[in-house]
Amino acid sequence: MESIKYVLPENRMPTAWYNVQADLPQPLPPVLHPGTGQPVGPDDLAPLFPMELIKQEVSTERYIDIPEEVQQVYRQWRPTPLFRARRLEQLLDTPARIYYKYEGVSPAGSHKPNTAVPQAFYNKQEGVNRLVTETGAGQWGSSLSMACAFFGMECQVFMVKVSYNQKPYRRALMETFGASVTASPSVNTQVGRMILDEHPDSPGSLGIAISEAVEVAAMSGGTTKYALGSVLNHVLMHQTIIGEEVLIQLELADDYPDIIVGCTGGGSNFAGIVLPFLREKFSGKRQTRIVAVEPAACPSLTRGLYAYDFGDTGKLTPLTKMHTLGHNFVPPGIHAGGLRYHGMAPIVSHLKELDVIEARAEPQLRCFEAGMMFAKAEGIIPAPEANHAVRGAIDEALRCREEGVSKAILFNLSGHGHFDMQAYIDYQAGKLQDYEYPQEEVAMALAGLPSVG
Ligand SMILES: *Cc1c(COP(=O)(O)O)cnc(C)c1O
User: Fold this and answer.
1) Residue 309 sits in the same domain as residue 337
2) Distance between terminal CA atoms of the chain?
């Protein structure tokens, strides 16, 4: 019998996250205080994050145990299935063996609850009852709203304005979980008012929404903390449960990937599937090509500078060294809202600098074309973000066909697109467009990089 999916029982779910900081060939550059240019300490971050997450951010322990309370919530949808995409292989007429890990089975529809749940848990444990955050397409806001509902906490979400208008059902989902949702930029914060004064029609961006959320937390006198859905080291670590499960599932399949593909916005789902395989690569046990796929309209890894920059437009966050298009850059309104971020996770950026991973940028229409093929073959409608990974995997499989070689290709299907059907409607009506690489806007934004490091 040909297996289609590899499913683990609950008792085989991994019970620790993998921390790649233990195994990096060179350590990460430090995070800097924007005022002093000196490395930040735990006290600088304490107004925003609970101490346990600050510790995880800088930890060099190889494994960190997943608290039992978090495991219990995870088990509602984890372990997630690994599929062999046999119908897609047939459609492509490729000798490649294509596998995809499906994170869309979580209640929020993506990988993001993997970190939302522990973040809410550690805050609650330290006596915090209210979290504030930003959301692009709404996946992260939904995930944190759900996690806050589980732990009896309040949640406030600044939602990027273009998505707020494009995706009313995501907003409704957050409100159903009990969160309050504000379109960003808003008049509720100083940063939001400043941006609206200058650009009354601003469509918003993740960089702007982060500023608003950080401001609310910083001004709350400790009652409200901030949560970020990607980019930070602890977030990437929480996502490693994805790759740890795949390693076990591929043993069941008696296979090992020659190529791993993931889409990158802030880098968390990509890191989640890739980092456990990098551990094997660093230890010299296995060789795997690793490919990050990002949108051509917001190509931080392939076209950005590797430099210290702010994580937000309002310059409220510490400075991290990363691939960046500049904190002032407002990406075009592509439908993959979760990939509209000016920067890239420091860990993913560092791995790119070390030449451990490859990156490529794909325009929106080619990604939707790939997503449509995938949907017809496999029956799952990918989130527009995940379409970038689908595109990357399909292109690798087509190359296998040309070269007549059978390679194993693994990709992360980070979420489903059930709340993104307007994008599919627009694509099929021929209303979606590709955007030229916004060279001038990026050059202007890069001119505004802080002069440190
Ligand atoms: C948020 C999101 C992404 C992009 O974020 P990463 O941190 O790069 O993973 C990708 N896919 C889906 C489905 C998302 O919701």
Assistant:
1) yes
2) 57
